[in-house]
Amino acid sequence: MAASEPRPHILLLSVDTLRADRMGSYGYARKTSPHLDDLLAKGARFADARTIEPLTAPALASMLTSLPPHEHGSTRNGLRVRPELPSLPKILRRHGYKTGAFVGSWTLRAKLWAMEGHFDHFEEVLTKARWLGMVKREATAEDLNEAALDWFGEQIESEASRPVFLWVHYVEPHAPYLLQRDFMNQIGSSPDGNNYSESNKYDSEIAYVDFQISQLLDDVEDLVAADNTMVLFVSDHGESLGEHGYWGHGRHLYEPSLHIPMGITWPGRVEPTVVEAPALILDLAPTVVGLLGIDVPNFFQGVDWSKVFAGAVEPPRDRVTLYQAHRGSVGAKEDQTKVREKGLLEVARLEGGKKEILRVTNGRRRIFDLVADPEELDSLVREQTEISEGLRTWLESVQAGLILADELPPPSLSEEDVDALRALGYLD
Ligand SMILES: [Zn+2]
Question: Which CATH code fits 321-423?
């Protein structure tokens, strides 16, 4: 964009634990996400996007810094990021943006994650004991919207000419899944005939957050012109709903945990398109910066898709993408070096539809052809052979990052934090 044009407001809306294939725009038959599907249809929708690590704090730090977890330092929930990191919100602030974050997850609390300094305003919205227990550990999407809109409205009122970057991170549909009864008609009866099945509850939570996001967008549109607003939508990771005998996320690098919805809308500036080439959550930051016409810093490791949208470069169809999985969370009094080094569970490398996974804990190597075997059931590795050079290089760089733990800020978890992280399934 030209320097004289007013910068758009930017909304970054991230949803926890939303796997791509449970949304209509990614092929799901149930009506779980009509509003988000409409939103994604208005801009660039990344059909083949993945997170880099299927855990909340690591993935979202990668989203904001465009760095892999072993470089930003938050490889597990409860581990803080390195101090002084560059990030998307910091760059936007330098270019005149007022920046605000509203997070509804205990995992993202400032003292556990240390990303608060990247924003002018960082608000932990912990309004509800949404699940079991007495402690208010989470927020509903409705509460998040209220807090975020209050702040957004104040910024527009106090300084109408200044652009705003607003990030909201929604908790639904993170486990334990609630049955959102108001949305049962919309999504229709459960495919397995059991409205109380975990899978059905999960779908109803998606429909709830989909509706709430549409409410936020409507309310923002009452305050600022839609054509001057860029909306980024993404999930931090997916969820395994029983595939490979596993419920949850974090411990494996199979597609249900990695494949995420991702899209960018900016009316008149980003043409409606479906991007088929591989994309990563790390791409959001450089792409936003590129779309604004700001030089993309070379420390951002994701792809700047703005050049592809502009037709200046070809989509990176042959891109190699790399992944890591670590144990869910650190405990209260664990040794800093040990928890980082011992936490690595898996690494993976995806090239040309073939995904090579190494289970670091037992040395088991598998290769799946995601086209012929999308459920990743039949490994092409018939006997124990050496991992590829590409995956070995990635493994070594991840391990090297982890042993630099001395430079990293130590975890600071209370017993209350540990209880909260355990309730979310991140501690054994
Ligand atoms: Zn998450």
Answer: 3.30.1120
The superfamily CATH assigns to domain 9-309 is: Alkaline Phosphatase, subunit A (3.40.720.10)
Element (H, E) at 14: strand 9-15
Rounded to the nearest 10 degrees, how much is the dihedral formed by the CA atoms of 316, 49, 256, 251? Answer: 80
For residues 51 and 252, is the Cβ–Cβ distance under 8 A?
no
Strand order, beta sheet including 364-369: 321-326, 344-351, 354-359, 364-369
Distance, in Å, from the CA atom of 107 to the CA atom of 417, rounded to the nearest integer, reads 8
Ligand 1 midpoint to CA 314 (Å)? 32
Q: Tell how far the Cα of 52 is from the centroid of ligand 1, in angstroms.
A: 12
- And the tokens for 95? 């270019």
- Cα 409 to its chain centre, rounded Å, is 23
pLDDT band at residue 402 using 50, 70 and 90 as cut-offs:
confident
Rounded to whole angstroms, the Cα distance separating 194 from 206 reads 17
CATH 3.40.720.10 placement within the chain? 9-309
Query: 168 vs 99, 178, 243, 361, CA distance in Å?
Result: 11, 21, 29, 35
Each residue's pLDDT tens digit, 99-136: 999 999 989 999 999 999 999 999 999 887 665 666 67
Cβ < 5 A residues, ion ligand 1: 16, 56, 236
- For 143-176, the pLDDT digits (tens) are 999 999 999 999 999 998 899 999 999 999 999 9
How far, in Å, is the centroid of ligand 1 from the Cα of 59? 8
Could you read off the pLDDT of 223-268 as tens digits, one per residue?
998 888 999 999 999 999 999 999 999 999 999 999 999 999 999 9
Q: What is the pLDDT of residue 133?
A: 64
Query: In 3D, which of 174, 247, 170 has the Cα closest to residue 11?
Result: 170
